[in-house]
Design goal:
The protein is an alpha+beta fold. The chain has one domain. The chain contains 5 helices and 6 strands; from the N terminus they run αββαββββααα. The strands form 3 sheets. Strands 1-2 form a two-stranded antiparallel sheet. A two-stranded antiparallel sheet has the order 3-4. The longest helix has 23 residues.
Length: 198
């Protein structure tokens, strides 16, 4: 099973508008990253408050900063990221050369690069698995083994199934069963809505 479906692979537009802060790019990043974390592919509707903006090439380094004030806002270097992946990645850049994202199976691949998808697969239960040595390094560094990725994937799958079933509910002849299922769906949707605010 592929890691991301074709319609969920992020693609940055060529946005060169000057902005005072990289956070001004957030609305465009949400569109280009299809409301998903570029690294783990979690959709933000379950925890929108926990989504941040990552600098793919880190802007802060212990040795020397990679990015100048000018390039700090460069749209082509920004990744819409869940807090979990952003915190795990931080300022890691094992090549110590901003022009080389990975070397010797260590480092990163820009999630907008089609090569990113060939590093991982998604198991039917929602777990992410690395399939290359570089993917394994990224998997460990980003902590893609966290259960939240599996849970969010499965919530999204349930939402899809429910969307398909809901139009057929009114065809149920058993009124009591109809009421029970409708009540369960309402509770489910209410809990999912609350997830987006925590």
């Amino acid at each position: 099973m592929s890691f991301r479906e074709a319609d969920k692979i992020p693609a940055r537009r060529n946005i060169i508008t000057a902005v005072a802060s990289y956070s001004a790019h957030r609305p465009d990043l949400i569109i280009d990253f299809k409301q998903r974390c570029g690294y783990c592919n979690d959709i933000h509707i379950y925890r929108i408050a926990s989504f941040e903006i990552d600098h793919f090439i880190p802007r802060i380094r212990k040795k020397k900063p990679f990015l100048s004030i000018k390039t700090d806002t460069d749209y082509s270097n920004l990744v819409y990221s869940c807090k979990s992946c952003n915190n795990a990645k931080r300022n890691k850049w094992p090549t110590d050369d901003e022009n080389i994202p990975n070397r010797d199976d260590k480092g990163f691949i820009d999630p907008c690069d089609i090569e990113y998808d060939s590093q991982f697969i998604r198991l039917p239960n929602g777990q992410i698995r690395a399939v290359t040595k570089l993917g394994d390094w990224i998997y460990k560094e980003l902590r893609l083994d966290k259960p939240q990725h599996e849970i969010i994937y499965n919530l999204e799958q349930l939402d899809f199934i429910i969307d398909q079933l809901e139009p057929n509910l009114n065809k149920l002849e058993d009124i009591a069963l109809y009421k029970r299922i409708t009540n369960l769906l309402l509770k489910y949707r209410a809990y999912v809505k609350q997830l987006g605010t925590v």
